[in-house]
Amino acid sequence: MGGPTFLRWSNRRQAGPMACHQDSAPPFRLASAGKPRPEPPGASRIRTRPGSSSPYAPCTSGLLAPARSAAAAVAAAMAQADIALIGLAVMGQNLILNMNDHGFVVCAFNRTVSKVDDFLANEAKGTKVLGAHSLEEMASKLKKPRRIILLVKAGQAVDDFIEKLVPLLDIGDIIIDGGNSEYRDTMRRCRDLKEKGILFVGSGVSGGEDGARYGPSLMPGGNKEAWPHIKAIFQGIAAKVGTGEPCCDWVGDEGAGHFVKMVHNGIEYGDMQLICEAYHLMRDVLCMGHAEMAKAFEEWNKTELDSFLIEITANILKFQDADGKHLLPKIRDSAGQKGTGKWTAISALEYGVPVTLIGEAVFARCLSSLKDERIQASKKLKGPQNVPFEGDKKSFLEDIRKALYASKIISYAQGFMLLRQAATEFGWTLNYGGIALMWRGGCIIRSVFLGKIKDAFDRNPGLQNLLLDDFFKSAVENCQDSWRRAISTGVQAGIPMPCFTTALSFYDGYRHEMLPANLIQAQRDYFGAHTYELLAKPGQFIHTNWTGHGAVCPRRRTTPDGLLFQATAPQTGTFHLPHSTAYMALCPTFCSDLLKYHVS
């Protein structure tokens, strides 16, 4: 079977989701860390002068000074490149050409070295791009501090290249991981390399191939000492919005950059699924044709929904195959994923943040992948009868648009909740308005909408939730009736809308002062003596003997560490625990005694 066939959706190639950056050749290994690298011809290492704080000051003491000065001059003459990039997949090539266009000299390297020659002879022909056939040669061509971008497959490939690079670098040199690395890996690498004196940066890169070529969104984080040395390059090549503000700024320490990129990708999952649910309602409830749906999305792109994803959706709906028929209905309805949306959902669970919409978007893709099962289920499982829509078509189309907008607000509100919690967990100082600006252009989720988020955080940098901002509060209230009508109509028609419905459920839950979780706490206390907290007595945790059976609790009892265990109603077995439920895990002996009083 042959390889994939690529179709051009428009005259200008559209940016696609960021691909994994991986070369086809197997990895090779160089000398292990700590062994000296071979010197380039005519050059020698520039060594630190004894007692000097600068790693770049040549030693001039003793009879060797003239020779070393000459060697330094040779090395300086060879060092022409401002930055190096490893990984010549399409993203890497386009980033190199982007940097070249902005006046930076780039040295290109690929572990399949023939790709370097091919790139220089074709895409980079006539540019100032340099090539290297070995990591040693690449290092010798770099100005100091050396700056090296890795655009290789996330995971072991990044660690392998770091291991090979470290022996070739000096204190203060910089390694930048521009792939879709997991943020905990970035935290580990940042700490490990700091011990070796190497500055590590983990940078999210969004915008696909076109973004890399003409202006991506860049989200750098890691060792902040590196930022002054890469800022001009990063902000120079980044997308620009408004009055020329770059879609790039320093995000935060250690894994902050890749965490922000991960949340960006999760929001991207949510945006795409929301658009799919709107499309589903148009197609199966309103029975709209492709041209009609494309026109609707084009009109929506002139409203608050103005965005890259809405724009390309209109283009996709209009696109016709070689046979003159629309291509979209021919595409298998099984969505793939590379894992970053899943990472976002897992992080939300880990940190206890209800990022429900992104989670549902991930699960929707999982469900779509069960194509064969769904074919069988469609023959056996029944739903509502297909009844033609009898309402006002134009009015319901507006309901769908408002439902999409309101749900989108919820998705971003949840995403920023996760960013805020991560900042608390790791001690990051995140500029939320700045993050919104980074996403305002150059990336897959770029939209006018993000400017409103920046405005909200500019008004109130300590904003706890976007829904509490006056603009977004009013926007959701304005959409609320349409939102509910769109969902109820879809439910009655048997249309799956996991993201529309979870967005509304989150909104209703968030605005409720009193939720039924009190019953959950009572149930937990009933079967497991997990205790509960009374509204009238915050901070006091209580257990009740709900069955009335078992031993009567003593009126007073002391825990092993001397905390008071006070019974308030010994006849029913109710008593206070003046500490958090975490204490139960710390005092198993006491908890065992507690259960003796609870269980007959």
TrEMBL record:
<comment type="subunit">
    <text>Homodimer.</text>
</comment>
<dbReference type="Pfam" id="PF03446">
    <property type="entry name" value="NAD_binding_2"/>
</dbReference>
<dbReference type="InterPro" id="IPR006115">
    <property type="entry name" value="6PGDH_NADP-bd"/>
</dbReference>
<keyword id="KW-0311">Gluconate utilization</keyword>
<dbReference type="InterPro" id="IPR006183">
    <property type="entry name" value="Pgluconate_DH"/>
</dbReference>
<dbReference type="Pfam" id="PF00393">
    <property type="entry name" value="6PGD"/>
</dbReference>
<protein>
    <recommendedName>
        <fullName>6-phosphogluconate dehydrogenase, decarboxylating</fullName>
        <ecNumber>1.1.1.44</ecNumber>
    </recommendedName>
</protein>
<dbReference type="GO" id="GO:0050661">
    <property type="term" value="F:NADP binding"/>
</dbReference>
<keyword id="KW-0560">Oxidoreductase</keyword>
<dbReference type="InterPro" id="IPR006114">
    <property type="entry name" value="6PGDH_C"/>
</dbReference>
<dbReference type="InterPro" id="IPR036291">
    <property type="entry name" value="NAD(P)-bd_dom_sf"/>
</dbReference>
<dbReference type="GO" id="GO:0004616">
    <property type="term" value="F:phosphogluconate dehydrogenase (decarboxylating) activity"/>
</dbReference>
<comment type="function">
    <text>Catalyzes the oxidative decarboxylation of 6-phosphogluconate to ribulose 5-phosphate and CO(2), with concomitant reduction of NADP to NADPH.</text>
</comment>
<keyword id="KW-0570">Pentose shunt</keyword>
<dbReference type="InterPro" id="IPR006113">
    <property type="entry name" value="6PGDH_Gnd/GntZ"/>
</dbReference>
<dbReference type="GO" id="GO:0019521">
    <property type="term" value="P:D-gluconate metabolic process"/>
</dbReference>
<feature type="region of interest" description="Disordered">
    <location>
        <begin position="1"/>
        <end position="57"/>
    </location>
</feature>
<dbReference type="InterPro" id="IPR008927">
    <property type="entry name" value="6-PGluconate_DH-like_C_sf"/>
</dbReference>
<comment type="similarity">
    <text>Belongs to the 6-phosphogluconate dehydrogenase family.</text>
</comment>
<dbReference type="GO" id="GO:0019322">
    <property type="term" value="P:pentose biosynthetic process"/>
</dbReference>
<keyword id="KW-0521">NADP</keyword>
<dbReference type="InterPro" id="IPR013328">
    <property type="entry name" value="6PGD_dom2"/>
</dbReference>
<dbReference type="GO" id="GO:0009051">
    <property type="term" value="P:pentose-phosphate shunt, oxidative branch"/>
</dbReference>
<comment type="pathway">
    <text>Carbohydrate degradation; pentose phosphate pathway; D-ribulose 5-phosphate from D-glucose 6-phosphate (oxidative stage): step 3/3.</text>
</comment>
<feature type="domain" description="6-phosphogluconate dehydrogenase C-terminal">
    <location>
        <begin position="257"/>
        <end position="547"/>
    </location>
</feature>
<dbReference type="GO" id="GO:0005829">
    <property type="term" value="C:cytosol"/>
</dbReference>
<dbReference type="InterPro" id="IPR006184">
    <property type="entry name" value="6PGdom_BS"/>
</dbReference>
